[in-house]
RNA sequence: GGAGGAGUGGCCGAGCGGUCGAAGGCAACGGACUUGAAAUCCGUCGUGCCCUCACGGGUACCGUGGGUUCGAAUCCCACCUCCUCCGCCA
């Protein structure tokens, strides 16, 4: 959530940003309309909601002040002669009752107004880094690494070119989607044989890299309270939610350890010498994939459950600290995919595709020969203080001599070290051999225990 | 799962229904003393929101949410969390 003061002080900036992000806040004011008038109208409605709340708040505080005055007067009554107390007390009690009733009334109205405002304000996305391409989905390519293999030159024939990961995995008996569907449903799966070892090897490898870079390793809960999800900018409720909720509880299955790592420090004020604070988390990730039926539905690319090693950083809000950390996290992700020997492209994600909390987002897309295109394998976002505000994660900046400095919200960043399912797709497809076998990337061999899977 | 106990400021810890945003201690910060440091002494020292250019004023917060009362950190109810004991169990 953004600072509400931004709405009061620079509403135009909010409107411009809404337009760039194509984010609809109110059902009847959407980005599908011509021009940016809808964004302007959205901001005006937000301002109206804020005013309504402030007015009630002022009135409520005024009544409370009167209540306090009545109480103070009541205290003095005790010092009067006994005979006079009764008479002095009666009107105060009467006034107090009236004020209490009025206060209850106003409290309810103010609370409702605040809820209405925040419900809408909470959906307003973060501001957008100036260099982010302003577009629905035309991302900027930052750079490339590696060269896709020339399969034809290696003896893959025209009719039998490189196969996709599902074909490979099935021929080598590495996955079982049929049983997954029977037991848990479409898009659930079992990994089998070397795929299990490969999956664990990726985790082990990524954790090692994270640790080397100073991240404290964690395994995290795979569930989290709704409140935490909301703090991180996720919407567990709503028709197109990506989040599984547990019935009769306020728990959700996490879609990423970003949630559990970010939520870990909710409601704390950190001493500045603890920053930057780097944590990495291994968790399962659950996604409903609502609305994505049919999209890349084959195989492991888009599934309901996978395992991920996540990087997370809390930095001070000074200067370009978080921007520098963002580059650092991207560099770690690149290090991992270079070590795995997977060609990739790095994208600066366009404004229309950023998601609510991100100020800027870099994706790595690895080359996937099976589809003849790049596919997303990591994503790192700098969310500035957008998440910290609702989670109340602050730090105390260095004071300038006399006084302790006011706490400030930290900046929060997240990034994928490795999502094993997507990495498996890339590995199987890039390391396939003409004889049907798959080479194991060298860095993973110590854990897989062999240098080649198959042929079978 | 059953029975008890507890949740107060960065930490520890007091707190009779009105004089409590809350004693005291530690830590931190500023100053004095010192060649420097330690020790000692003096002082400062929670957070949010609203109003104000500012000085400042108002209001709220003692795990969370309700309730009783003219008035709640203090009484009542529910929930959350932690601790102890019993039971069960990877």
Give a description of the structure:
- With 456 residues, the protein is an alpha+beta fold.
- The chain has 13 helices and 17 strands.
- The strands form five sheets. It has an eight-stranded mixed β-sheet, with helices on both faces. Strands 7-13-14 form a three-stranded mixed β-sheet. Strands 2-3 form a two-stranded antiparallel ribbon.
- The two termini are 53 Å apart.
- It binds one RNA strand of 90 nucleotides through α3 and α4.
Give me the secondary-structure topology:
Blueprint: H1 4-9, H2 11-21, H3 37-77, H4 82-121, E1 140-145, H5 165-171, E2 175-176, H6 177-183, E3 190-191, H7 194-212, E4 216-219, E5 223-225, H8 226-231, E6 251-253, H9 257-263, E7 268-271, E8 277-286, E9 305-315, H10 321-339, E10 344-348, E11 360-368, E12 373-382, H11 386-391, E13 393-396, E14 408-409, E15 411-419, H12 420-430, E16 438-439, H13 445-448, E17 452-453
Parallel strand pairs: 4-8, 7-13
Antiparallel strand pairs: 1-10, 2-3, 5-6, 8-9, 9-15, 10-11, 11-12, 12-15, 13-14, 16-17
Helix pairs in contact: 2-3, 3-4, 5-12, 7-12
The chain binds one RNA strand of 90 nucleotides through residues 54, 57-58, 60-62, 64-65, 67-68, 70-75, 78, 89, 92-97, 99-100, 269, 271, 392, 394, 396, 399, 401-404, 406-407.
Shape annotation: elongated
Query: Low-confidence segments, ≥5 residues, pLDDT <50?
Result: none
- Reading the helices and strands in chain order gives HHHHEHEHEHEEHEHEEEHEEEHEEEHEHE
Largest sheet: 8 strands, mixed
- The end-to-end distance, rounded to whole angstroms, is 53 Å
Radius of gyration, taken over Cα atoms and rounded to an integer in Å: 28 Å
Task: Quickly give the structural class.
Answer: alpha+beta
Mean pLDDT: 90
The main sheet orders its strands as 1-10-11-12-15-9-8-4
Helix content: 40-55%
Annotation, overall tally of beta strands: 17
**H/I helix tally:** 13
Q: What proportion strand? A: 15-25%
């Amino acid at each position: 959530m953004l600072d509400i003061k931004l709405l009061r002080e620079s509403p135009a900036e909010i409107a411009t940003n809404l337009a760039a992000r194509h984010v609809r806040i109110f059902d009847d004011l959407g980005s599908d309309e011509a021009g940016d008038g809808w964004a302007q109208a959205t901001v005006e409605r937000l301002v109206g909601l804020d005013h309504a709340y402030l007015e009630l708040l002022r009135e409520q505080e005024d009544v409370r002040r009167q209540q306090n005055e009545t109480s103070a007067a009541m205290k003095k009554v005790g010092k009067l002669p006994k005979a006079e107390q009764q008479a002095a007390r009666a009107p105060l009690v009467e006034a107090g009752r009236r004020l209490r009733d009025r206060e209850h009334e106003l409290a309810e109205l103010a609370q409702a107004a605040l809820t209405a405002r925040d419900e809408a304000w909470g959906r307003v996305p973060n501001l957008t880094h100036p260099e982010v391409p302003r577009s629905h989905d035309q991302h900027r390519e930052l750079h490339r690494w590696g060269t896709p293999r020339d399969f034809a030159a290696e003896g893959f024939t025209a009719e039998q070119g490189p196969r996709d990961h599902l074909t490979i995995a099935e021929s080598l008996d590495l996955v079982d989607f049929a049983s997954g569907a029977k037991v848990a449903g479409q898009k659930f799966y079992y990994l089998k044989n070397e795929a299990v070892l490969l999956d664990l090897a990726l985790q082990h490898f990524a954790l090692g890299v994270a640790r080397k870079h100073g991240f404290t390793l964690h395994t995290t809960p795979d569930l989290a309270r709704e409140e935490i999800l909301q703090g991180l900018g996720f919407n567990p409720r709503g028709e197109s939610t990506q989040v599984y909720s547990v019935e009769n509880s306020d728990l959700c299955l996490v879609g990423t350890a970003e949630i559990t790592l970010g939520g870990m420090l909710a409601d704390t004020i950190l001493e500045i010498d603890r920053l930057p604070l780097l944590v990495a988390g291994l968790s399962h990730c659950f996604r409903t994939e609502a609305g994505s039926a049919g999209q890349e539905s084959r195989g492991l690319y888009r599934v309901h459950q996978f395992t991920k090693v996540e990087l997370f950083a809390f930095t001070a809000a000074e200067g370009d600290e978080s921007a520098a950390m963002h580059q650092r996290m991207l560099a770690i992700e690149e290090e991992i995919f270079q070590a795995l020997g997977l060609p990739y492209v790095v994208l600066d994600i366009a404004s229309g595709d950023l998601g609510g909390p991100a100020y800027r987002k870099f994706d790595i897309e690895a080359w996937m020969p099976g589809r003849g295109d790049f596919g997303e394998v990591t994503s790192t976002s700098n969310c500035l203080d957008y998440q910290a505000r609702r989670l109340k994660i602050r730090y105390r900046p260095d004071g300038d001599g006399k006084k302790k400095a006011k706490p400030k919200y930290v900046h929060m960043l997240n990034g994928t070290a490795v999502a094993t399912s997507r990495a498996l797709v890339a590995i199987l497809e890039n390391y396939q051999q003409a004889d049907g076998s798959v080479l194991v990337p060298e860095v993973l061999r110590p854990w897989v225990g062999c240098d080649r899977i198959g042929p079978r």
